Amino acid sequence: MKGVVFTEFVEFVEDQFGLDIADDMIDNSELPSGGAYTAVGTYDHTEMVELVTQLHKLTDKPVDGLIHAYGKHLFTRFAAGYHHFFEGVKTTFEFLLQIENHIHVEVRKLYADAELPTFEYPHVSANRLEMIYRSQRAFGDLAAGLIEGCIEHFGEQISVKREALASEDGKAIRFVLTIDG
């Protein structure tokens, strides 16, 4: 995973739980990197799993809830730091539909070693968007948080249903977004 995901996670923990919890989370974790992350570095996703596990132990908050909340936070950071991806985009659906063929293409230009999730869009209409998320890392809660962060960013009323695709062992999830009303 790219280092920006880790640096933002540590910032998220500091903001939500304080510096002491962030320090304890890193100190209590067994991390090949030692918990020293740079935004442009690349780190094994198991380090994120270890950090979240330690955060859960320190806060007694559910792991899936922590990852989901972090996804929402991460979207706000992406929106602030990569505003060019938002130029001319007016809706959640418009933004989400550009992830695979525009945003991820640009990310790969900058970071050839980036291992990004993939998205398929089997159904798109004016009021409904179906997305299939696939990742070897099975971070569906992160994807869900990012999607929710996107909806909040555009200020829309959209319901999200989530369905794990059974044959994929948590590595593939169908998200169905429906505009309310």
Tell me what the structure shows.
By secondary structure, this protein is an alpha+beta fold. The protein contains seven helices and four strands; from the N terminus they run ααααααββαββ. The chain has helices at 3-17, 19-28, 45-59, 63-81, 92-97, 99-110, 140-154; strands at residues 118-124, 128-134, 158-164, 172-179. Strands 1-2-4-3 form a four-stranded antiparallel sheet, with helices on one face. Helix 1 (3-17) crosses helix 4. The radius of gyration is 16 Å and the shape is globular. The mean pLDDT is 93.
Q: Brief description of this entry?
A:
With 181 residues, the protein is α+β, with helices and mostly antiparallel strands. The chain has helices spanning 3-17, 19-28, 45-59, 63-81, 92-97, 99-110, 140-154, and strands at residues 118-124, 128-134, 158-164, 172-179.
Strand-helix topology:
Elements: H1 3-17, H2 19-28, H3 45-59, H4 63-81, H5 92-97, H6 99-110, E1 118-124, E2 128-134, H7 140-154, E3 158-164, E4 172-179
Antiparallel strand pairs: 1-2, 2-4, 3-4
Helix pairs in contact: 1-2, 1-4, 2-3, 4-7
Low-confidence stretches: none
Helical residue percent band = 40-55%
Largest sheet: 4 strands, antiparallel
Spatial shape: globular
Count, helices? 7
What structural class results from the helix and strand content?
alpha+beta
**Mean pLDDT reading:** 93
Got a strand count? 4
Strand order of the largest sheet: 1-2-4-3
From the N-terminal CA to the C-terminal CA, the straight-line distance is: 38 Å
What is the chain-wise order of helices and strands? Answer: HHHHHHEEHEE
Radius of gyration: 16 Å
- How much strand? 15-25%
